[in-house]
Structures are given as C-alpha cells and as structure tokens.
Specification:
The complex is a heterodimer of chains A (303) and B (327). Chain A is mostly helical and 303 residues long. Chain A is 69% helix and 0% strand. Chain A has a domain of 209 residues: MetI-like fold (Orthogonal Bundle), CATH 1.10.3720.10. Chain B contains 14 helices and no strands. Classes of the chains: A mainly alpha (303), B mainly alpha (327). Chain B: It comes from Sphaerisporangium corydalis. Chain B: It is a multi-pass membrane protein. Chain B: InterPro entries: MetI-like, MetI-like_sf. Chain B: Belongs to the binding-protein-dependent transport system permease family.
Chain lengths: 303, 327
Amino acid sequence: MLTPPREETAGVRAAPGRVRVPSRGRVVAARFFGTRQGRLGFGLLASMFLLAFAGPLLGRWSATELDFSAFMRPPSADHWFGTLQTGSDVFAVTLRGARRSLLVGLLVAVLSTGVAAVAGSFAGYYLGWTDRTLMWVADLLLVLPAFLILAIMSPLFTGGRWLLFVIMMALFLWMVTSKIVRGMTRAIKEREYVTAARFMGVPSSAIIFRHVIPNLASLLIVDATLNVSAAILTETSLSYFGFGIQPPDVSLGGLIADGARTALYAPWTFWFAAGALIVVILAVNLIGDSLRDAFDPGARRGP
Amino acid sequence: MAGFLLRRLVNYVVLIAVATSLAYMLAATALDPRSNYEGRNPRPPAAVVDARLSRLNLNDRTPLFERYLTWAGAAVRGDFGRTWNGDRVNDDLARRLGVTSRLILLGVVLGSVGGVLLGALAAVGQYGWFDRLSTVAAFVVLAIPTVVLANMLIIGAIWLNDRLGAQIFLVSGEVTPGLAGGAGAGLLDRAKHLALPTVSLALGQVAVYSRYQRNMMLDVLDADFIRTAMAKGLRRRTALVKHGLRTALIPAVTYFAFTFGSLLVGATITESVFGWHGMGEELVASIRTNDVNTVAAIACFAALAVLLASLASDLLHAVLDPRVRVG
C-alpha cells in the first residue's frame, strides 16, 4: 500500500534557480528506469504503440482492403501475417484492433481513475451525507454485475458510438479505488496545510482539487496504469461474445473470437491477435508494478 | 456484534433489491422478447404472440412499471417467473448452478492451495532461482486473458490427442452423452472433461495467490511477534506454523471467498469455450434470446453471491486476525 506523499513535493517545486534539487518526478523516473522490469515494460508498451500507430505506414494493405486472390493464406512476403477467410490482411487488421484496444484501455483507465479521485476525495473530505451517498452508489455498482449490464447495453454502442462504451466501462471500474482514496483523504484532511488553507478561507472544493488530489497522485497514477490492463481485459471478454466494440469497428477481443474458430487449421488468424494482447497486458502490468516501487520504494510489492 | 450484523444485512437486502430492480428495468427496456416469436416460420398471428407474451409478463405493450410490479411481486416470494419459452426460471438456474459449482469447485481449491504453496516456497527462498522463476511465471500468466488461455488449452489438447492417438482430454461439455460402461467409466469421462476447464480457471488464481502469499510470508518471516514467540522458547518451525501461518493466510482466505462468489456467475468465458451449460453461459445466452426474466434472476443471484462472499470474507478476516474488532 502507498503512504500519502509528504511535503517534499511542495518544498522541491518552490526552489527554481537555486541549488538544483531533483524534482520528485525526476526521482521517480530515475527509480523507474533503474529497474530492468520498468525498462522492459516501457520498451514493450512503447513498441506496441509504435507498431499500432505507425505500422500501417509500412504494410501494403489497409484494414478494409480485401485481397480476392488470397483467402486464408499463411504468412507470406505479400501478407506478413497471412490473410483471413474474407481475404483481409491479418497484419493490418491486427494493428487496427490493437489501436482500438489501446485507446479504449487508456481512456477507460484515465476516466475511471478520475472519477475515483473525485468521488473518493469528496466522500472523505465532506463525510456525512456526501460520504454515505457516494459510498452507497459505489457499493451498488460493485453489486451490479458489470458484464451483464454492459452486455445488455451493447446495442447502444453500434454506429461508432464506442465512446459511450468507454464511459460505461469506466463507470464500473472506479469503486474500489475510490474507497482507498476516501480513506487516504480522511488522513490528509487532518494535516496542517489543509487546516491552514481552511483557516485562510479557501473553499472546500478548491482545497480538494489543489491540496488533496495532488497529494494522492502516486496512488492515482499507479491505479490508472493497472486499470489500463483491467479495462483491456474486460473489453476483450465482452468483445469475445460480440458485446464490446461493435462492427464495423474491431478490437483485439473480436479478432481473437473469430480467430479461435479457425485456430486449429489456420493458426495465424489467432496467434497474432492473441500475442499482441498478451504483450500489451504484460507491458502495462510491468509498468504499473515498477511505478508502484518507484513511488514508494519502502513498500513491498503487491501481486 | 448482532446489531452490526443486522445493520449490514438490512443494507445488503436493500442493495440487492435496488440492483435487481435496475437490472430488470434495463433488461425489460433494452431486450425484445417479441422478436423471438416474430422470427419463427410460419409466423404466429400477432394476437397469439401478444397473449403468450402477456401470460409470461413479457409483453412490451404493457407499461414497464406495471410489468415491473407484477414481476417484483412474484420475485419477493422467490419466484422469478418463466423464460420466454415457458420454462420456470428457478428450475433452470438451479440446474445451471449445479453445473457451475461442479466446474469451479476444483478450480478454486486447486488454484488457492497451489498458489499458497508456491508463494510460501518463493518467500522462504527469497531472491533464489525459484522465487525469480515464479515471479516471471506469475507475470506471464496474469497477462494471458482467459479467452486466450482457454483456446490455447483446447489447441494444445487436440494436438496432444492427435499425437497420442487417444482421447486424453475432452474439450466440450460435462459428460459424453450416451456413454456406455459402469460408474468407473462415467467418472473417468467426467474427469477427462473437467481437466482443461479446471486448469484454465486455476492457473490465473495460482498466479494471484502466489503473489499475495509471497508478500505476506515475507512480512511474517521477520515480524516482531515471530521473534517474540521464538524468544519465549518456541522453535522457529512451531512459531511459524502456530503464529505465522494464521496471519499469512488472511489475504488468501479473503481472496478465496471473493473469487468463489464472483466465479459463480463470472466463469462466463470458461463455460462458453468448454461448452459447460452453467450460470455464466446462461448469462450470455439469456441476453441473446431476449430473456428478460432470466437476466433479472441472474442479476439478483450475482448480487447475492457477491454480497455473501464479501460478508464471508469479512467474518473470516475477523476470526483470523486478532486485531480486528467488530462493531
């Protein structure tokens, strides 16, 4: 578990031009890149991003093009990852799926961590009815089966409305973090700088956004990172059943679902998408774990 | 203690009621049971369909709130109505719950025991080869989604069966229908069917448990209370088993209750890939067949399972950890 960061951040930031004190960000980055695990995770994720977004420039085929002279062909010089039943190029299709999966994962993670930060800190700061209401909503969302709700709502996500899907997924991912944030906010609320700000007449919401949430940054960054993999995994299982990203859009989950049917006699339809997904999740988990260590070197690693 | 439990139980009942009602409203609005009949050939007359839908309380021409009241009135008495083709939802789900329980029981037990043992071994030899190996393995396993893992297992099993020319692993269903032979053959057949889904469930859990257990064991190995126990004359082994193990097992036990509760409905992918007709598979099937009553019943059951699991894990935590005071 992370301890709330001390005042060192504030002190360091206020010293420009004098003795060069390394900023907290730089210290954390140095610790992060000092471990093999951190470098490996960052390298893997960066290359996946590069491949997903710059790869199409290299490939000869686009994801929507069909090659009517090659159906279900194994990898060749013309089609690097082979072709599907429809004649589409697996390389191009996989990259398109990876782009969508990465984007969905990142957006859901940022959004859900944002909601967790706001809900948790408001509940912990105001307590009373705000607290009870927010935490009851969190409990309710924990109890509702997210998979079922998202699956029922999937017809709404057709026609390129995948952003709605992102919002709905984020809605089911913030609850546990918000409870941790709430607990830590209650501790921060008792600190001198918050009391000082309150006596100076700073409004409560300004205190929350200016003093409480920035002090939870390390927890939130780690949480957002780990949420990326959670979001991509949820999206994959939904898409496997056709409840996630809707056609004509496609994500890695949908590709894996299609590929699994033909995997036995055409392994290339399954393994490239599956491999891309595994590498992304592995990279994100490695980064999250190393970030946690970098922010809080004293604490022991969680799972 | 009693007051605390009572307050919690009341809160749980309210949460389940609200969650189930929300799920019902959403399902009744979004799903369209009428389309099940209209797709039939020959197409039944509209009046017949209407009458049947009304009898099942699925008619979208009845106002939503009225349907909800009819449904809730029966649901409070424990009757979740009928599926769109007339079976009783309760019987259907009870059968599927049996299937799911038979599927996940071995998986969660193997996963937790295996993970705890691996984690403890890794902690005892911290930074040794086994510790490093299990850390890497856990990271890799946690990166493989169940969908991919289950399909990988199937591909591997079919390859192995081909190689050996024998059906070692069976990849679809719970039993072979119409199997001849006595109880022994039947049991073997079940075991062959169960092996792969169990591995697909257990592997990820082994990874999670081993990480938890390793960290807890490391904390315990150099904790003050172990030193104290040894200072008063216990041998290290006795101190670890009597005082250490109880503490070190807390996260594993808590996580066990949580996993069991969520897998009752959440083994969707394993069940679908391996063709077991359990709760998770029904969840997907009921949405595809516009089965409003089944969807609501599953939502209710899922909420109940999650809350009971969290209650169980809290109680176990209170029993195992002497520092926890209830109230």
